[in-house]
Amino acid sequence: MRLALSSFFQAWPWPPDPGDSSSKTMERGCFFTTFYNRLSTMKQILYSLCIIVVLTSLSGCSTKIPVMGMKDGRFAACTVDDCVSSQTDDVKYKIDPIKATGSPEIVMVDLANSVESIFGGKVLEADGNYLRAEFKSTILRTMDDAEFFYDEQAGVIHVLSMSRGDTFDFDSNRERIEKLRTFFEKKN
Questions:
Q1: Rounded to an integer, what distance in angstroms lies between the CA atom of residue 156 and that of residue 165?
Q2: pLDDT band at 48, cuts 50/70/90?
Q3: How many CB atoms are located within 10 Å of the residue 85 CB?
Q4: How far is CA 158 from CA 66, 134, 165, in A?
Q5: CB atoms < 10 A from the CB of 119, how many?
């Protein structure tokens, strides 16, 4: 680990001296290498861990919003491990739809209010029988996306909920949808 970080830090000779040629600058070593080599082993480990934590945290900020939406009345297939869907046949991802009755306007307004006020979600799109929302997961604080489609004839709201990226966050999507189901079915 020490060797890897030492070679990593040698990429930046700093501070550059305008009077030195590049060979003298590299002989003198860079600021980061000099700084890193003067630290005790314990401090090197702590600084290395801090760098890893910062880089890992920043990688969570760069996750792309997945392409979502309905196609022929169905959600897209689950593409990450932490995903649940009421329209899949795969047992790993399967979750029951939410039971609902009433006009689409009333059901979808109730659903949107439940998502935003009780579960801390943010509705991104609401169009007729379709609703799309995002949530911040409770454990890793990553973003999760959810889609809901109200099938009035069947009396159910189909649901798809997945994590952005492929991070495992202890089944937070399944737990959130189960809590939403319990709340919503008691309300209706």
A1: 28
A2: confident
A3: 24
A4: 18, 16, 22
A5: 15
DSSP bridge partners of 98: 157
> What DSSP line would sit under 126-169, residue for residue?
EETTEEEEEEE-TTT--EEEEEEEEETTTTEEEEEEEESSS---
Average pLDDT value for residue range 46-56: 72
Please give the average per-residue pLDDT across 7-36, as a whole number. Answer: 54
Most confident of 13-17, 26-30, 140-144: 140-144
Confidence tier at 62 by pLDDT (50, 70, 90)? very low
Shortest CA distance to 156 belongs to which of 100, 74, 86?
100
- Name all domains of the chain by residue range, CATH numbers in brackets: 2-61 (no CATH), 70-187 (3.30.310.80)
> Which residues does residue 71 pair with via DSSP β-bridges, in sequence order?
74
Number of helices (H) and strands (E), helices first, in the chain?
Answer: 6, 8
Question: In this structure, what token pair is assigned to residue 106?
Answer: 């009333």
